[in-house]
Amino acid sequence: MSNAMNPARSFQGLILTLHAYWAARGCAILQPYDMEVGAGTFHPATTLRALGPKPWNAAYVQPSRRPKDGRYGENPNRLQHYYQYQVILKPNPSNLQELYLGSLEAIGIDPLLHDIRFVEDDWESPTLGAWGLGWECWCDGMEVSQFTYFQQVCGIECAPVSGELTYGLERLAMYVQGVDNVYDLNFNGVEGEGKVTYGDVFLQAEQEYSRHNFEFANTQALLRHFVDAEAECRALLAAGAPLADGERHRMVFPAYDQCIKASHIFNLLDARGVISVTERQSYILKVRELAKACGEAFLQTEAGGALLRAA
Amino acid sequence: MPDLLLELRSEEIPARMQRKAAGDLRKMVTDGLVDAGLTYEAAREYWTPRRLTLDLRGVTARSRDVHEEIKGPSTTAPEQAVQGFLRKAGLFDISQAHIHNDPKKGDFYVAHLSRPGRSAEEIIAELIPAIIRSFPWPKSMRWGKASAKPGALRWVRPLQSIVCTFGPETEEPVVVDFEVDGIRSGNITYGHRFHAPEDIVVRRFDDYVSKLEAAKVILDAERRKEIIRADAVNLAFANGLEMVEDEGLLEEVSGLVEWPVVLMGTFEKEFLAIPAEVIRLTIRANQKCFVTRPGDAAGDEAKLSNHFLLTSNIDAKDGGVEIARGNGKVVRARLSDALYFWQTDQHDLPDLDTLQESAARFDLDLSKPLDQRMARLDRLGVTFHAKIGTQGERVARIAALAEELALLVGADPKLARRAAVLAKADLQTEVVGEFPELQGAMGRKYALLQGENESVAAALEDHYKPQGPSDHIPSDTVAIAVALADKLDTLVGFWAIDEKPTGSKDPYALRRAALGVIRTLLESDLRIPIIEVAYRQRNRWVDQLLEHDAGSGAGDRLSSSDHTDDGRSVARDLLSFFHDRLKVYLRDQGARHDLIDAVITPQSDDLLAIVRRVEALGAFLDSEDGKNLLAGTKRAANILAAEEKKGTRVADAVDASLLKQDAEKKLAAAVNQAEKDAGQAIQNEDFSGAMRALSVLREPVDSFFEAVLVNDPDENVRANRLALLSRIRAATGQVADFSKIAG
């Protein structure tokens, strides 16, 4: 195997190995969603597709933005922009834990050499109105993945339940590459001249975005954008509403984009420190209401499993 | 007699739920079997992260046949009554019933029911699925294909297999066959997830335990704990270290592994610059590892070594080198976060210019980190309670009160104010954000680092004391002033918005706050006028509301509270809450509750005085004089009460000219003297003296009742004598309401 594809030698190799592993298990390998999100769960391929009765198996990388986690590139572990590898299987197969452990072996983690553990972690996303039970998966004390059985998404009971796996790619890569600083990760697997590190790709961006997130993001403008996104989401949902009882909703995905946008703007405002504790709650509630409305609309679409009323 | 082996194997069960779940399983199974008419000799439950197991010995093989007669109506009863009887007895036709005769009632129907005994297997096969379906997990979930339909089985995590075997020791046990949501009971389990993934056929508990152990699963959690504890202590000792024991962590860790292997990891010494408590919590909360101290610092809580102990779940091929290294990496990453928090908290905040207004309000010095944090707490308008207001407003009230109380408790008012102003500043620090349980402790550390007076620094931590009945009260006067101010302000606030504790509900721990005030006052010999303090503190709050609402134009908080009242009723009501808590406290201390009731009046707002009175009264009543005076006073009170009820006239005052007999003259003189002396003694807070002054009444009261008939035919004499009795009641009433004393 060339280093460019080797999960222990290159960041991209890790991703490609996971793609190959999950592709071989029937997942559609999707691409990242083209919007700023806080986690892979926000991708409509998870949030919306977890709803309704239709089976759905997909895997993808999702760049995730956590404005508050910026450290100006000075912390070896913490980033305001990082990658999550996301797998969603609906309904969850009964051997999901074994499938997950198989994926760790595929990237070179031997469970008789490394201490793999499933530690209680009830996952909840207040902004998405979602929760599930599951674990943090530990490898030698490090949380490398989240493993969740979705019980509710967008405030709607999941039927059937999806299994969601979220791998923290940088952490895993640091682990398998044996690197202590995320910026030292080998990105492309080349040694010597031509080697590209994670730092080459992202260090400057981390510094610049930290400045932006904490110091310069225009809070007045962001506050307005939040209001706009909220209004737009509702307007689109209203405009796409079923024309008659039993008809389908016609504009869920665009409306959901506005929900994602509102969520990210809220995160930025939070990083800027302009949201008080009480306001915080009300912002979270506002985003959740949008997510709920989108989820309910999705159930009225074909992908959401809505049956058309017999003509 | 047969034994039952039950194992419910699932995906990883949260550590904190395992012990209780296993106990619940034992109780539900044994209760269920007993209800069904079976008995058993012994039951013991076990648990690991992946299984709940029940070992039930000596179960009866069958339940007994049960014969029962149900009496029905008379044979001449109307059809409706007969139908009702058939339904009740479970008969199809009245011909199935027998007819009995009673000499009084005549012929009537009786159903002879006999339920044959059932085999234990049959009972178990019915019972276990029902238990699984109704198991009381604190949180449970659905999973897989079955979750598409309503009513799917819920378990804490997906349930994977059920072992259920039953049989006597001398025979091959059988599988008790049943099915729950597609999971069929059997005799197959699995060992350690990685070391022994093959299936294991089990027969009964004995071979089950030994086969599991061979498959690297230690079933007994207590044994896992002992292994971890012993190995950790030894490994530390071998490295010249002492393990910092942590029972809660040990319990948790034993619920995270089936095969514990203790290893040692290391982090860089420079992290030891972080306070020990922060290191311990960081490593404990995130990594579930034990910390160690250097062997020569045994018992020194402030000192840690740079080695920690972790418990892995495998016997690693390389002896655990990789695992220890990996854990070390994570601990380092966590500690570098902690170090970042610890250092950030000692540095300037970015937006200092926005904090000027808040700084001025609290007289803060913005060159100091903790002052900046307090300014930000105020500036951000962080809510304390939606109806009470912000943390900033709260701190302002506490500071004003602490300054006032300082004079009463003998503290320097300036220091008390300063301590109160900084008391909540650490809520804005990164470390407390990460570890809320360190509030107060961190404030103290940061205060010392910025050169605060030591009493002020100590008060930042100690004003939260006492945290419970076994915790100490603060000792330094500055801390006392702030502790009292903080607790009283909280109580007044919740009283003002009418959110008092009810029944078992006390979400804001107001009872604890009141008890803290009580203990602090009593144990430090302090007295504060609670009504006055509460009244003024409540007005401070109202003033803030008015100011706030004038500024924002919002009147919601004001309108939601009844501020038209002058606040006196809030203060009085709070005082009566203090009285209730004081009674509970004194009763726990062994005081007689009738004495407490006797001395407390709705106006007694000096708690220390109440306690002194109770003590003095108790001592007095133990003496002969006390007992007799109590009897005499009660007699006087009873006569008065009876006459008052009849509407007999009682003179307003004793008229000396109407006193005829010696005994009543003497009593009148003695009452005058005793009332005066006792009143004087009470003024001087000399309660024993007051009791002594009253004790001289004993003899004249006794003589009076011996020699004098109250019910004189002359109405005026009678009214005068009743007035004299009421003087006795009044005189003793200065000290206590004797009518409330038992005996």
TrEMBL record, chain B:
DALR anticodon binding domain boundaries: 633-729
Annotated signal sequence range: none
Protein EC: 6.1.1.14
Catalysed transformations (reactions): tRNA(Gly) + glycine + ATP = glycyl-tRNA(Gly) + AMP + diphosphate
GO MF term set: arginine-tRNA ligase activity; ATP binding; glycine-tRNA ligase activity
Main localization of the protein described in the UniProt heading: cytoplasm
Compartmental location: Cytoplasm
Keywords: Aminoacyl-tRNA synthetase, ATP-binding, Cytoplasm, Ligase, Nucleotide-binding, Protein biosynthesis
Superkingdom per UniProt: Bacteria
Keyword Ribosomal protein attached: no
Keyword Metal-binding recorded: no
One GO BP annotation of this record: glycyl-tRNA aminoacylation
UniProt-listed InterPro entries: DALR_anticod-bd, Gly-tRNA-synth_bsu, Gly-tRNA-synth_heterodimer
Gene Ontology cellular-component annotations: cytosol
Subunit field text: Tetramer of two alpha and two beta subunits.
Family note: Belongs to the class-II aminoacyl-tRNA synthetase family.
Protein name as catalogued: Glycine--tRNA ligase beta subunit
Species this protein is from: Mesorhizobium denitrificans
Taxonomic lineage: Bacteria, Pseudomonadati, Pseudomonadota, Alphaproteobacteria, Hyphomicrobiales
Gene name in the database record: glyS
